[in-house]
Write a structure and sequence with these properties.
By secondary structure, the chain is of the alpha/beta class. The protein contains 9 helices and 25 strands. The strands form 7 sheets. Strands 8, 9, 10, 11, 12, 13 and 25 form a 7-stranded mixed β-sheet that branches. It has a 5-stranded mixed β-sheet with strand order 2-1-7-5-6, covered by helices on one side. A 4-stranded parallel β-sheet has the order 15-21-16-17. It binds FE2/S2 (inorganic) cluster.
Length: about 425
């Protein structure tokens, strides 16, 4: 039984919704029974959260007058104004979708230029509205560039506060001889520990507390944006809670984890089809009651752990470890799956546990070599036995070097942290 107690009121398209303050908008709305968050640009397909990690872009909504805000990365607060995007009058009943009947292949605005000028302007406005190209923000201030920021120098900078990053930072700082700071874009440390049914918040907090106890500085809501090699011998730009930090370190450790990927089948974008780790977050971190039936796709360790945890919490689970899915059923949200061989499975949500892809862009930008992994569909950082990349002073650990899962990522973090400490000794 869920112990979530709604304690604030937000307004979705003007209607009051009770929610838990501080939770992500996407989670609060889902828990309140809202299934469609927006419509897709051009084709008006229903959209809802998939990853709950800020990586897929499926949860964009208009929040407090700002368009294209990630609802999974925005905390709920009293009085917030939330709107569906690209739909009218509501996300689930979208009359703008009628445009698809007239333009079945999507609207091509180039064919709609006309004259005179006034008619052209009117038509352009109509195409923008129907095609979902958005409404401008009510205010412009939030879109301004970050303030020019501050310089910072540390011994070791770790990017990513998941199991690998926390373990690396902890091991590196243990002898108290160097300054170690960890940056993470999420609202709390833990990364994939938070969504894992066998670990969860308690394990994440324990590892973070251990790291803090040896002097590691943990900074959340702090996203590493880019590496600038030409600036003063190179610096890492961090959006640290809206303030730009220009960071230089004697060693950099990339522990940026991995991205959830979807499986390939028809209608795999239906609301209710989630990344398995997002379902893990709903159940483990946010304690959302998962009523009805969950279909879990995938045969990896995480799929099995999730199936076991949901079943033991009393949920109805259909684990499709090796079956091939042909299409999802349901017009606005998923109601079932058609499998190869003609079998049909009824379900209220789907958890896709495909092999996650390494989040290697930043390390790659810093010069690290990567290689394409056939399994997992992503580019993994190439490192040696000490976690060193081909670039001096740059290391990587955990899933960014190829998906390994929570325990192996943590072990890799410890060993890379040790190697980095030795290199600075
Ligand atoms: S970016 Fe919000 S659910 Fe993926």
């Amino acid at each position: 039984m869920s112990d979530r107690v709604p304690d604030c009121t937000v307004f979705l398209d003007g209607s009051a919704v009770r929610a838990v303050a501080g939770e992500p908008v996407a989670v609060g709305l889902w828990a309140a029974g809202v299934r469609v968050l927006s419509r897709s640009v051009k084709y008006h397909r229903p959209r809802a959260a998939f990853c709950l990690a800020g990586h897929c872009g499926a949860c964009l909504m208009r929040i407090d007058g700002q368009p294209n805000v990630k609802a999974c990365q925005t905390a709920l607060r009293e009085g917030q104004r939330i709107e569906h995007q690209n739909s009218w009058p509501a996300g689930e009943h979208d009359l703008l979708g009628a445009a698809d009947a007239v333009f079945p292949r999507g609207m091509d605005h180039h064919t709609m230029f006309t004259s005179p000028r006034a008619a052209n302007a009117l038509l352009r406005k109509m195409v923008h509205r129907l095609g979902g190209l958005g409404r401008l923000p009510e205010r412009g201030g939030e879109l301004a560039a970050l303030p020019s920021g501050r310089r910072r120098k540390v011994d070791v900078a770790v990017i990513g506060a998941g199991p690998a990053g926390l373990a690396a930072a902890l091991t590196c700082a243990q002898d108290g001889k160097r300054s170690v700071v960890v940056y993470d874009e999420q609202d709390r440390p833990g990364g994939s520990l938070l969504s894992h049914p066998r670990f969860g918040i308690a394990a994440a907090d324990a590892l973070a507390a251990e790291a803090r106890a040896v002097g590691v500085e943990l900074r959340c809501h702090a996203a590493a944006i880019a590496w600038y090699p030409e600036d003063d011998g190179g610096l890492l730009a961090i959006d640290d809670g809206g303030v730009l930090t220009k960071l230089t370190a004697r060693r950099y450790i990339y522990a940026t984890g991995s991205y959830d990927v979807n499986a390939l089948f028809e209608n795999n974008d239906r609301p209710g089809i989630w990344a398995a780790r997002a379902v893990g977050l709903l159940a483990t971190r946010y304690r959302v009651k998962l009523a009805g039936r969950t279909a879990i796709l995938g045969d990896g360790a995480y799929a099995h752990a999730l199936a076991e945890a949901l079943a033991s919490a009393g949920s109805n689970v259909e684990h499709l470890a090796s079956e091939r899915v042909l299409r999802a059923r349901g017009r606005l949200w998923v109601s079932g799956l058609d499998l190869e061989g003609g079998r049909r499975v009824r379900c209220d949500r789907v958890a896709v546990a495909a092999v996650p892809a390494p989040a290697s862009e930043l390390a790659r930008q810093h010069g690290a070599a990567v290689e394409l992994r056939a399994k997992g569909g992503g580019f993994a950082c190439l490192v040696d036995g000490r976690g060193a990349t081909r670039v001096d002073q740059v290391y990587a650990c955990g899933d960014v070097c190829g998906f390994v899962g929570v325990e192996a990522a943590r072990a890799h973090g410890h060993s890379v942290g040790r190697a980095v400490a030795e290199s600075l000794a």
